[in-house]
Structures are given as C-alpha cells and as structure tokens.
Amino acid sequence: MRTNGVDLRREHEASLARPRYDYSPAARLFFASMNLVTGRKTTLPKAKLLETLACVPYREWEKLAYGRLTRRYRDHASVRSNREVVEWGRDAQDNEYHHLLVIEERMRQEGLSDPWYLKPPLPRLMVLTYVVLARLLATASMRRAFLFNAEFEDHAEHEYAHFVADHPEWEAQPVDSTTVAGYTDARNWADVFRRIGLDERDHMNRSFVSAGLLEKVVRYESMPPVESTENRHP
After folding, report:
1. 3-class SS of residue 4
2. Could you give the CA distance from residue 49 to residue 103 in angstroms, rounded to a whole number?
3. Closest by Cα among 195, 62, 209 to 150
4. Which of these, 170, 206, 217, 223, is most buried using a 10 Å CB contact count?
C-alpha cells in the first residue's frame, strides 16, 4: 500500500489513543487463546500468525459468495451484494498476504526462525479451527461474520500500534527490500508496520460498513472511500 499522503505517525498515535472495540465474548476467548499460545507481547512470529489467520474469513466468504452467485443468479440484488463480497475478499486476501511476506522478510533480516507454534502441525490446526468458525458465522449470518472480522481487525490494528511503540529503533532503520517495495513506499521499518496497522483499520472499517454499522467507522484524512453500502447482509 502506498502512503498516499497519509500521516502514518499521526494515525499510529491515534491507534494507540483509541480504546479497543468492546469485543464480544467469542472474540475475547479467541484472542485469549492466541495469547495463551504466543504470549501477550506482540513479536514478529506472533504477527506472522495473525496474518496467517487474517486471510481465512475473506477466503471463506469468497467461496460462500460464489455458491450464492451460482444459486441466485436471477436475483440481481443478491448477485450485486455477493460480487462485492467476492471482490473485497480477493483484495483483502492479497493485502494480508503482502503483510505476511513483509513480516517473513523482516524475520529473515533479523535471523529469526519460526517458534514452536508456527511449526507443523499447529498452524494447520489453528487455521482449520478458524475456517470452521468463519464458515459457521457466515452461514448463520453474514452480518455477524462481518462484525467478528471487525473485532479481529481492530485487535490486529492495536497489536501493531503497540508493536511499533515497543521498537523505537525501527525509526532509524531504512528499508532495503524489493519485497517491501512491492507493498509500500514507506522508507523505514517503523512506517512499514504503521502501514500494516492502518490496513487493518481499513479492513475493520469495511467490515463495519458491510455489517450496517457505518457509525463505527474510524475516519481519518486520506482514507479510502467508505461506501454507504446499499447491500446490508442479514
């Protein structure tokens, strides 16, 4: 993601200052389970796990939306709303995948190897658990699925905000990586991770909009357009 005139430092401070969303019991349990495995402090391996899980709901929504497109192709409103989910799912998956590549590059530069919780078979089990949860939520209520994802993305935004604050040395560490250049034009590692955190806010905002909760959107200067969305999912 290009910086596109966004003041990453200001938005980082805004993330730190803004209280976390009032998470549901299910989300609290989900995050507590992750902390039990990884520890409460955010590290590069923990961020890698976050990004491994982050793409799961978008991928599952895309699959379900394609099924609905096939079954309801005569229903123009349904086709329109499900095509939006498919397109959003693809874009979000690509974005989360770029995050994963950037984190892997940073781990390589720091000479870090995967800890025990990122070695098979545990990551596959965690992903499978989230696949089941994401599918159940989306099948029961797309609105609830979007809201749970908003909670996940709000959690991720705050994790990255504190992660950057814990590493002031990154401010003076320039980026020299074609992998990172393919993601952002940020010039130091602090801004790279600020950009990732802001992406998570954008995902949260889109999730709130899709859930019909436009009032929950966290607005900022030069942010991507927020659609009022005429298609609120049940």
Report:
1. coil
2. 10
3. 209
4. 206
Radius of gyration of the chain (CA): 18
Long-range pairs of 226-233 with CB within 8 A, sequence gap ≥ 24: 229/84, 231/77, 231/80, 231/81, 231/84, 232/143, 233/81, 233/85, 233/141, 233/142, 233/143, 233/146
Separation of first and last alpha carbons in the chain:
31
Q: What would the pLDDT profile of 152-196 be if each residue is shown by its tens digit?
A: 999 999 999 999 999 999 999 999 999 999 999 999 999 999 999
Determine contact, residues 78/67, Cβ cutoff 8 Å: no
Q: DSSP per residue over 72-89, as a string?
A: TTT-HHHHHHHHHHHHHH
pLDDT averaged per 10 residues, the chain (length 234)? 83 98 97 96 97 97 83 73 86 96 97 96 95 95 96 98 98 96 96 98 96 95 74 49
Domains of the chain, first to last: 8-216 (1.20.1260.140)
Q: What percentage of the chain has pLDDT greater than the value 90?
A: 82
